[in-house]
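Hi R.,

As promised, here are both runs. First protein below:
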Amino acid sequence: QVQLVESGGGLVQAGASLRLSCAASGRTVSWDVMGWFRQAPGKERDFVAAIRWSGGFTNYADSVKGRFTISRDNAKNTVYLEMNSLKPEDTAVYYCASARTTGWRIPAATYEYDWWGQGTQVTVSS
């Protein structure tokens, strides 16, 4: 079991920055992957970024490449999502998730993740 608690969401203007945090407790295996997803009203939950605890290998959605950065602090069992140059279309509930993996690939599909946080709202005004 993994417990995930997100924080750092809020209301910002377009062009601003935010940093989300996800604190993990329980199982934290080095080969596990931590991901960020987002869900806007009336839309599906979409992949944003992911990182493996061991080695820091990452994967990003094309829509956020160059603007968002995922990182982790293994000592604190915490994953971060630094979001820069925010746009109104980034408005969504952002969820942290944890995946058990066995291969090198960093998963990007919701069904590949085993545990989920409650989400944190990010609203970007124009």
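And here is the second one, sequence first, then its structure tokens:
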Amino acid sequence: QLHLVESGGGLAQAGGSLRLSCAASGRALSSYDMGWFRQAPGKEREFVAAITWSGDTTYYADSVKGRFTISRDNTKQAVYLQMNSLKPEDTAVYSCAADTRTIPSIPRSSSSRYDYWGQGTQVTVSS
């Protein structure tokens, strides 16, 4: 069983930055592709970014492209989300998720592709 714990959320001003971390335990993180999702109050969960197990390829939602960067360090069992130029509409609970790649036909942007989830960390951006 893979266990994921997010950290690094908090309050930021518009235009500011935050760096989220996702710490994994229980299994080798290198076995999984990883993703970040977010959910704002009253809205559905939405895809933010994803990264392949090796870190060679990354994917981003259009809404964060050019502002957010996903990365990983398998030796540290960690995945990161660097968020720059934050906007009030980035306010949400951010969760990391692990994909065992058992159903590759499901898009990476779909939450149903992911098998393990963290509890989430709150990000609030003030205007």
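A quick note on the second one: The longest strand covers residues 18-25. Let me know what you think.

Best,
J.
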